[in-house]
Amino acid sequence: MATRGKKYQEASKLIDRARAYSPEEAIELAKEAVYANFDETVELHLKMGVNPRSADQQVRGVVLLPHGLGKKTRVLVFAQGEAIKLAEEAGADYAGADDLIKQIEDGWLEFDVSVATPDMMPKVAKLGRILGRRGLMPNPKSGTVVQPQDLPRVVDEARKGRAEFRLDRTAIIHLPIGKASFDKDKLLENLAAAVEAIVRAKPSGAKGQYIRSASLSTSMGPGFKLDISSLLATASALTR
Questions:
Q1: Which of 72, 79, 82, 178 has the largest count of CB atoms under 10 Å?
Q2: Which residues of the chain have pLDDT under 50?
Q3: What's the CATH number for 6-69+162-238?
Q4: Is the Cβ–Cβ distance between 42 and 226 less than 8 Å?
């Protein structure tokens, strides 16, 4: 295993391995541990008590972070006819049909979120291998396959800070909740919204402890273990 850099090792000295932190403490320490020369993303990592191989234990959904992600989100909409105009008026960066599909097949991927109307999905389906592995494929379960009349809402949400979460093959959810430059209260409110959304997405097949462990880190920094009880209490209190 490669040795961590000196800056990372220095930041790690802030961690008390014998304890779990409240969300407020973890956010403060994560911000203090920032050392990169760019605005690092603050990330939430949750180890879930579900089986990712079981169909009735999948955890997936979206959350609208109250303070956004701190970056411009480039939105692409697969649509045709009047739906293209609706998407463009809503603020989509790109909207179209066959032309966009051809560009993507040729290697173009300069967007962060893709949305599609149902009538476009038979055509978009052939992009599954390209978009699926990058988490960019429109999907009804994540609310990115919508009727034309819903395009303004979905595009607006995506631009404001709509974040998708999904269980990976190791039963972990990784989710950005903002930038290190955000003040503590904004990060705390984004964190609460994310946890509350994940709790609401609890699948019918989940048994026992739903969230087994949690940590908070920045893109380059060490992870700070979160106290689960405190995390759930904070999420409940701030999202009422």
A1: 178
A2: 1
A3: 3.30.190.20
A4: no
